[in-house]
Fold this sequence. Notes:
- It is built from nine helices and ten strands.
- The chain is of the alpha/beta class.
- Helix 3 packs parallel to helix 4, helix 6 crosses helix 7 and helix 8 runs antiparallel to helix 9.
- The N and C termini lie far apart (49 Å).
Amino acid sequence: MLYFVATPIGNLKDVTYRAVEVLNSVDEIACEDTRHSLRFLNAYSIKKPLFSYHKFNEKECGEKIIEKLKAGKDIAVISDAGMPVISDPGSVLIKLLIEEGLKFTVIPGASAFTCALVLSGFPSDNFCFLGFLPQKNRERTEFLNKAKNIPTTTIFYSAPHDLEKDIKSIYEAFGDRRAAAVKEITKIHEKTEFFRLKDGVSGEIKGEYVLIIEPPEITEPDQELSAEEEIKALINAGIDKKEALKTVARKRNLPKSSLYKYTIDN
């Protein structure tokens, strides 16, 4: 069995009993940085052979993990902090596990972006997590232009050396919106800073950041608009066709089937 095990994102006490139990039971542990993971593992007297599994050796090491599993070993995969696979290595390995028909499961725990969303106070009934922005300027611009009309709270990860550039890029694509920069989650110096995208953050930039961006403002269509005009107005504002259809049907108490024709040519 292979276990994807969530580890604390800051405070070492934020680990589950089950995670400690599983890490003590496996034969070997794959981790991004063995030196970094030792601090956490030593805190719980977990003494297991470690080997490096990171984005630069993901495919090669993934194949070695498959061999170990086939040989009857139990393996745990952990990241430096939080849930493996989420903006961390693991997706390639999962694909291999599925192809080989090998068993794997997840041991849940802390995740930085969900904690940051709570701390921001921004709408959380629907949200979109987009992880780290692409490094190349062209890819970054294309990525953000596709994301700018997502009608929910949007969440990004940002390294300290990229923070100012990331905020500027988001502002150029999204326009000026309210945002929150959350860092040092669960640590002594945990901080949530609210700001406008056009202004950026203040103070010393230190630590890993989660950026929470408020949803775009959607102007309510004029009540004098016809159902067709209202649907088109919502679509032009960046709302998905299906969502625009549902919104207008619910608002006007009409069956969706009667409005479907207005979305065909859009």
